[in-house]
């Protein structure tokens, strides 16, 4: 019992340590309501769970449940609570008011048939705010092995029962007493009981049964004689009976008719053989179908480089599927359907037929090649092509030629296009996963390189990879100009677009950058009056996010974002012009632009120039542009300073005086607070 308590306490402490110190688990339990962000983090958490199970052989299975969005993550899957096989135990655990402790139960299998493995489970709270939990399951077989390491199972038995007296595990084979109980121990930690005693049929019982040996031998001899007579009679007198008995297991309903004399035995045998032949044919067809599933499973395992897979096992599987083992070159190409959202909307259920056509085209093209081509759809819009060559040095050239032929066929014969990423060739089966990952990464750069084309690793060398932080200044300028209703926002957006054109970005990087732009705009516009912010919230924000989701290339994203922002700024400016103070506010704006170089520019000087109360002008300015007067003046001066730093060779002190700062230290401090860099750092970085 001490061994069991120590083992379970150790597992309890391990789970507590992981919850407190494992960054992956913390990230999962602190998930937000954004499903896209959670999905990426959850798959990272799955990898953490796989490592945890791998490093702790005692663990049979483990999974996490997040109450916020009812998502369950296991080492291999991510699913919602309603489709999770063990949802009943989760529901009882989360709703329980009792402290969590080790529970003996049956772990439901994935198919939800109600059958499963006997385990003991422990749930621990991962997030006290919403009672999200982690559940770890230990197989009772592991507990049995622990107990057998300390007990002689030949002469004694040990049985472990839970608080209700249900047997958890026994060294006597089947659960239940295997002999007389001589001692038992109760554990206050688990509320379990260990019972022990001598097994039935031990040495003492054997000795006590010696008096019945001769009587037993005599009985056995009589029984053997009777059985021999029956056997010989049936074998020689009624040989058909043996065959009928065997057939009765196949067709018991026909056998009943035969015994009652309603059916001739020979006709019955003939009919049964015909049925067996039909069943054999059916099994052959099922075997062919199973081969298709085996091929797909093997293909996906090789692409993913499944943990624990052995290349020798792959070789045997390939040999059974008819693939030669003399291959010297392998390469993986990724075919991705362009504009998949539009493709899915246009074709609906017919898209599966088009995907099937595309697979068949690849197979027909491969029939004319001296090498083997293997194709499978592994995603809704992506298809992998595995090419196996006999000459490693020719694999890259052959892959490019084959994929270009496929791309041209799709362009000429179908209403959609495809982009293909070709990974570097591999010489061994273990290299397939690396080639596949590279092909996926290459296809992701179609946002910068364009669609309906072949992308290879050499194409990435033509453009430098983009550095996202260099675009943050443009994003800030766009947001501030847009909030103020200035036309300069469009020029800043064009500047951002031109900068992105000259660099290389994957689709994920480009999407993240545009997401930053949208969030900056959201933050700036939120300070505007309610009627202006309502235009942004109801019409622009969701449209911008939808454009990011459905557009793939830089040109498409830029054009869609520019069009949405143009329509929004027109509506916002129309609302501004309806106000009677609109002309006065824009006169103030022009005045600030003309006198930004003056160190005496202030709200007091502007109110004196226009003849209005300073507080009144400050409120009008904030209502119109959503920003304080001082912040707007600083923004105008910093934009002018950035322009002078890039276009002139003036010193920092001269530029500071040109934008209204008499002291260079004040200018440097304000510039760094506004841009994140000193004037000198900004000039070096941009030049």
Summarize the structure.
The protein is of the alpha+beta class and about 675 residues long. The chain has 28 helices and 15 strands.
Descriptive keywords:
687 residues; alpha+beta; six-stranded antiparallel β-sheet; five-stranded mixed β-sheet; 15 strands; 58% helix; elongated
Largest sheet: 6 strands, antiparallel
Summed over residues and divided by their number, the pLDDT gives a mean of: 79
Which regions have little confidence, pLDDT < 50, spanning 5+ residues?
Answer: none
Strand percentage, roughly? Answer: 5-15%
What does this structure look like?
With 687 residues, the chain is α+β, with helices and mostly antiparallel strands. Helices cover 58% and strands 14% of the residues. The chain has a 6-stranded antiparallel beta sheet with strand order 3-2-1-6-5-4. The protein has a 5-stranded mixed beta sheet with strand order 12-13-11-14-15, with helices on both faces. Strands 8-7-10-9 form a 4-stranded antiparallel beta sheet. The longest helix is centred in the middle third of the chain and has 40 residues, at 265-304. It is elongated and about 130 Å long. It starts with a helix and ends with a helix. 25% of the residues are buried. The model has no long low-confidence stretch (mean pLDDT 79).
